[in-house]
Design brief:
With 588 residues, the chain is α/β, with parallel strands linked by helices. 43% of the residues lie in helices and 21% in strands. Helix 2 runs parallel beside helix 3, helix 6 runs antiparallel to helix 8 and helix 10 crosses helix 11.
Length: 588
Amino acid sequence: MTDAHTASDPDDELVPIEDDTTEGIAIAGGSGWQILIVDDDADVHQATSLALRDLTIEGRRLQLMHAYSARDALNLIARHDDIAVVLLDVVMESDDAGLKLVRTVRQELQREALRIILRTGQPGYAPELDTIRNYDINDYRTKSDLTRVRLFTSLTTALRAYRQMRAHEQTRRGLEMVVRASTELSKLHGMQLFAQGVVNQLCALLGIRPEGLICAQAGLEHSDDPARVIAAAGQYGDLIQRPLDELGLPAVQQALQRCLDERRNHYSEHGLSLYFATSDGRGLAAYVDPPADLPALDRHLVEVFCSSMSAGFENVLLYGQLVDQAYIDPLLHIPNLNQFLKHLSALHMPDTERYLAVVDIDGFASINDMLGHGFGDAMLRAVSQRLTSSLGEPCVVARVSADVFGVLGPKGLVDAEPLQALFRTPFHVQSQTVRLSATMGLVRLDQPDLVGPELLKDAHLALKRAKGLQRGSVCYFSAEMGQDARTRMQLLDSLRAATGSSQLFTVYQPKVCLHTGRVLGLEALLRWRKPDGEMVPPDRFIPLAEQAGLMAVLGTFVLHSACSQLRRLHEAGHRTLSMAINVSQAQL
């Protein structure tokens, strides 16, 4: 290779290196900026290595990597995501091998931050403007420009751009995690995502690698939670979820504990500890390895960052509390109806190994009225404690209404005999011994076409049937029971539609004197003819109307119809006739 460039400074010229010639792929040791030299000419590699020897840019030394073909370079770039700059030859195994490599790196590997300095020994082959515009190339040089000063200038510009782009990437990833954390339904997982995003943003702000951890203060989320690591990155990644006093890093533990105790930031050459306050007086502390120097401006930015992120942590905690209120019973601290329905919806039907039960405490309303709501709440806690402790982890116990518990679990535990046995031993409530019984409805989960809400509805149907028998009874849901309930529901829907229409009408049964044969009066009777002509007997729809609260409407209709008919009879001359009307107990 010949160099047409001349200079007075010998350091500005390239001298060929006669030893350490490599083939294929070679990576130099050390740490610093990763620079990849791609060229099929070993002399170019040697000359470039000499030109860049002992250079430091932005406080970091250069670490050179070598590839002698576009294919080898692509393999290196795919394996190493920290390559900052590529010094790339255009013409290697083919005339456009270098340009094809650029296209693959940008479009397939999506390495937008990687800076590319294109070098060619044929200046007229690839037009500078078109190449830079189309392939996002940071710089374009001929090989005659391979001087120490010019390489230093080009690399400095490229590395500064690379550092800024990587910082933007880290900040973007951190913000994406923050946004995702705000929408997470799982409280713990949401806090972890948010804290991980804070670590990334903090490291990007300080211009250091994303290595650090965040520790939550004891009792931050639950009163019995110890101080523990909730997010960690880099060399600290294995510490996540560990209690603070078990980290095995005395300096880190001391820094975090001091930060949490004093509730303020600490800056030292041994580590940077930042405090994030929450409204309840408890907070979080972040620890990162410090940069070489932290200027006053950066300290100010860090303080602003901590204030902003404190509000974010507060939002995540509040969101977690909302999740608790939505899915946890506030009195008993067990799943509520919403959470129980989620468990039922997640079942894979049919499931022949598990049963569903609803357990209704007998006489709970009377106990509440006689002994007060405080005693009633204590009694519910005692029942909940016995169910959860006796049935254990295989079962899900939830409060599905005021005094009704839902239980889902193996049929060996969730069945009539084992559940009833739990109520044979008296309960101790506020220094009193209370004997309780429970009425239960059970569902065998062996039907493939049932889903969560339907399962619970069937269990309540069985419970209703059991209540119709006697207190303390157990009833299993059956297909016939479900069909009867569906028929009644359909009939009720039809009755509501018939109310106020011509489907409902009155007929009049005469009252006759058996001695004289004379009509003394009439009795008004309600009848229902459906649109298809079917007559529905009164003993079917009257009890249904009473249960559904429709008797006031139906009774008013019969009263008006009967009185109107009686007036017409009186006007026709039958003034001695009387009219009898049946009145429902609910209407009366």
